[in-house]
Design brief:
The protein is α+β, with helices and mostly antiparallel strands. The chain folds into 3 domains: about 150 residues, PH-domain like; about 140 residues, Probable inorganic polyphosphate/atp-NAD kinase, domain 1 (Rossmann fold, 3-Layer(aba) Sandwich); about 220 residues, Sandwich (Tumour Suppressor Smad4), CATH 2.60.200.40. Helix content is about 25%, strand content about 30%. The protein has 15 helices and 24 strands. Strands 11, 12, 13, 14, 15, 16, 17, 18, 19, 20, 21, 22, 23 and 24 form a 14-stranded mixed β-sheet that branches. The chain has a 5-stranded antiparallel β-sheet with strand order 1-2-3-4-7. Strand 22 and strand 23 form a beta hairpin. The chain is elongated and about 85 Å long. It binds the ligand CCCCCCCCCCCCC/C=C/[C@@H](O)[C@H](COP(=O)(O)O)NC(=O)CCCCC, adenosine-5'-diphosphate and calcium ion. Keywords: Kinase, Transferase. GO terms for molecular function: ceramide kinase activity. InterPro entries: ATP-NAD_kinase_N, CERK_C, CERK_PH, Diacylglycerol_kinase_cat_dom, Lipid_Phosphate_FormReg, NAD/diacylglycerol_kinase_sf. This is LOW QUALITY PROTEIN: ceramide kinase.
Amino acid sequence: MLIRSLSHPVRWLTGEGMEKQPRLLASQLFLKNSVFEVLLNGVLLTWKEITANKKVISGSIHHPLKVGTSHSVSVSEILAVRELHVDGGTKDDGRWQKMPQKLTESYPYAFTVSYVERARQHRWRCSDVTFHCSEWALCQQWVQTIREQLTALTSRPKHLLVYINPYGGKQQGKCIYEQKVAPLFACASISTDVIVTEHANHARDHLKTEAEIKKYDGVVCVGGDGMFSEIVHGLVSRTQRDNGVDQNSPEEKLVPCTLRIGIIPAGSTDCICYATVGINDPVTSALHVIVGDSQPMDVCSVHHNNTFLRYSVSLLGYGFYGDVLADSERKRWMGPARYDFSGFKKFLTHHHYEGAVSFLPATDTLGTPRDKTRCRAGCFICQHDGQLYSGDSPEESKTAPDVSDREYEVGWGVVRGKFLAINAASMSCACPRSPKGLSPAAHLADGTTDLILVRKCSRFNFLRHLLRHTSKDDQFDMTFVEVHRVRRFRFTPRHCQNDSELDLRENGKQLFSQICRDHPACSCSPAYSSWNCDGEILPHAAIEVGVHCQLIKLFARGIEEQPLFEDLANPLCAL
Ligand SMILES: CCCCCCCCCCCCC/C=C/[C@@H](O)[C@H](COP(=O)(O)O)NC(=O)CCCCC
Ligand SMILES: Nc1ncnc2c1ncn2[C@@H]1O[C@H](COP(=O)(O)OP(=O)(O)O)[C@@H](O)[C@H]1O
Ligand SMILES: [Ca+2]
């Protein structure tokens, strides 16, 4: 009886005026010892189990078709479909051999659909489902139709340029790519040119000058935030050069990059991956590349005296985070643990730095750094480039610093004082060390950065502030912390006089190290810290920063909202 139902020809379900291009394909196919009603409608592939259910209702026997387990997958999340050649019980998929001999004889044709399945905590996995049918033509029709629908997905990359940093994080980049990512790209018929970098800035310079970028649909980097930063610098600089834009002018409007960037996390912090995907997992990131996701991102340009220094997409941190980075670079041999070591050391050192921060507040945006909204997949604020007006924010006025401390230029605010940390977070900067991030309500693509000023305070208070990055408590709800959503800002360290800053810095370092050697117990702070710019050290303290709204795009979609009861919703979550 089942055999008969399975030998049903395919049913084309067409709507009015759709005769030429059927939209729906429906058949009864065999899967794991059961018959399934399988439906493809251009948007979803659905399969529902059908079992004959004999019931006695009011004295008469009823044979309703009972619908058992049901699954559906969005066509946009199908990775590939492949036909299986079953021949006398053997085929190219190991799992087939477990099928009963009778079945292989009756249903010798089969195709496998590989698709994205969601697991716990934003993790994606590649899952396979194999449908069996008794007729070759039916099998062909399914394979071809699914392939046609996949081909119609124009946002998917076909050819990628991949850079691997073999020394990032725990030095596993090459192995991660070869074992976890390359097989998925191959399954999705994505071709790649792979470059294993041989030195720092190899990827940046190759992209900037040599790479035939027109050949590719995207660039993938395997490494950490530093490696991603190299790709951003290569691509953004190349795009500006190709369009005749001068990067040295801080006011210049930059041209957005067309190629999307994929990040396969294999670094130490991997904050950009974590904050755009929700997890640092190479397979999840590879799947976001394959399905052709696109997430725009803001980029800050950093200048000193009308000279371009660097771009930043995550954290620009002076004081604490700059000092941690400078110290940790000397301990690279420790791997990712270097940040914990240097973090603890710099917390104990408790240096503060004096200077003035001036900033242009983003007054025309919806949202504030202290609201409870979070930038998530399909973020409403980012979809409008942050260009929405919300009026005054009560939270911001609550944290406004002492007026005597600042003077206002036209539209600009100025805060002078002694700071333990000056941080600009262009996105949340969430990472495994701080799952909500430095600025939990920051947006990926709203054209603003959250400027966080942590004034000199006791070690105990600073520890309270740092600990709040790891809990649900508000790290900005402290008298010595203020936060502003800004479009531009400048920092001028005290004693800084334009070009002489670097000389002073060098002399100052020598002077202070001399003083501190002479007075080991003294608690004086050096005059200058360094900027931590996405994990790279900047040589200047005085900088000017501007945010370029949505200058680049990632193969990501932002963090997806979690289903309320994810364990119940998805059996894979239990893994
Ligand atoms: C006593 C408990 C303290 C907990 C504080 C936790 C706060 C952590 C916030 C981290 C924000 C990180 C922002 C991202 C920075 C990265 O760009 C940079 C380079 O990353 P990578 O190239 O992958 O190595 N990472 C850092 O600067 C590490 C900062 C760690 C500070 C403890
Ligand atoms: N082949 C290489 N040899 C040495 N350094 C490299 C190489 N390729 C990239 N780099 C540099 O390594 C630094 C750290 O890379 P990253 O991938 O971010 O690892 P981590 O997260 O551990 O810091 C970056 O500054 C990058 O420019
Ligand atoms: Ca932003």
